[in-house]
# Entry
Amino acid sequence: MIYIFGCNPSLFQVGLYPYIATYHKQYPSIKIHIISKPASDLITMLENHELDMVIRKFGIETTFRNFSVKIASQITHCFFCNEKYKNLSLKKQVSLEELSNYPLLVLNQSSYERRALDYDFKKQNVKLEPIMDFTYHAPIVYLVKLGYGIGYTLKEAIQNDLDSKELYQINVNQISSMHNLGIVYNSKYLSTAANKLIAMI
# Structure
């Protein structure tokens, strides 16, 4: 039996891998096919019954039109930098206005966290104008390590780099950093194999 789900690579790393590892031990004969695409594309595939489920991020609101949602865990986003901008990480708080004067690397506007970030900046009457934006988190982390600017990503994905002091978290008090990680699915078309994973989470 094979089941298919869509998930951003960074979300798989921080929120889903432990469950998949346990699931595979219990059901080694079930094959899993993971598709990585932007969340909007994955939802379209789910609507067309091409996927069993989609793993994605949510804010406080966890309803989703035409689908069921199961919240698996909470995840945290943060601004971060390398040694070049370490002075910012030493401040107790950094405002979005101050941060906007630095080169920012963020996800593009098709992503949930970019839309949430745009909203937070707008609330403070600050315009978010990144020097680069991306589809996935990995190039943001890579370029920040090279000193290209200040990034915004999942804190759990860079925790080892923060612990080793290769990267530094910047404390920004004007963003909604805590979000939910959830599973979106249509119970009418959910396979038995996918149901077993949902039950495990």
Notes: The first helix runs from residue 9 to 26. The longest strand covers residues 68-81.
